[in-house]
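Study this protein:
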Amino acid sequence: MFKITPLVAGALALAVCDFCQAAVKDIDGYRPERAELAAQMPVYIVALNERVRPQVAYPERSPGMDAYLMIQTQNMIDSLQPAMSSGSAIAAGALGGAIGVALGEAMVRAAAREYAAATYAPLLRSQCDLQVDAPLQGAVREATARSPWGAAAQPVFIAGGVEDWDKQIAKDRPRQVISVTASMTPDFSALVTTVDAAAFAPEDASAGTGWQKKPLWRDQLIVVSDPMALAPKTQADIDRMVAEENARYAESGDLAIVERVAKDRYGSGKPERSQAVAADRRHQSRLKLARAATWVAGTDGARRAQLWSEDSCAPMRAALDQAVAETGRLLDDLYAQRLPARVPAKDTAQAWGQQPGARAIQALPGGVYVSRNDAGATQLDYRFSLLPLKD
């Protein structure tokens, strides 16, 4: 089971920290005339996660999670109903009413995490959850040293996955904070890397204390790896997935529970019978997904995770190398003012004008820039919503 722990509090707080949110209103970006000021400020380079982690598609569901959510929801209902009185069952029926709404939210949240954890499992088994903090912090350090202002800078490196990491940054002093994070999209189609570069300083001597929280300038740079494409599903894929599910069914203890209740149905207690029913339904639902003729929601992500793990993690290593190189290039372009024109926050994101396979830099509203070659297909919504580490 995954739960919030002090170790991951920093990572879970990404969605609310001052300098990690995707820009939603206009804040000025870096300009050449700010080089002198930038050179006077301390630089903090914060790695928000140490290793590659999967994104969790919550509160909005990703398309790839729907089938998995249906399985998890039915299993949860099956396990709850035998323990409910008839009145409670009616109150929670069809997830209706106040109880149903709360239960539904809990199911969606639990299913999102379970889906991410299940999809992530092949990477963990193959030890392909590569270290991303040092390579990305290094790329940022080298880019700042090449910048017009950073030759003499001595950045402070901060591990953003530990408790109270933000207390290492003096909030009442001018500063530059450059955060980095890399994670797999919910469907495991790509590795997405984000650099958020913000500077905090008063504009003039009459400024109050508002500058301590509101950036004077801020730019967000995103790198989407080459996407992991799936070949059409074959009978060999089906056979392998069925065998994997049968192995999971036996190793998890579900098979033993079902067999024990089947042998002594009336001697088993109600909780154990309920557990057996839920285990059997879970198994049959997973077998149905495995036997599907095409890659369907709930199985495509796990297959991509296996592909990322092939050849001793060679595809994942290539994606990380690409992220490091593109991160440096985007920062170079930012400080040399070679990025596309900044798009105001109120504007609708422009349509992607490139063909799939043609990497280019796209400007998104609010000072966000993304390097991609996927024709704009990769989700960017969950870059700061990562699966909590296992306690």
Observations:
- The first strand starts at residue 43 and ends at 47.
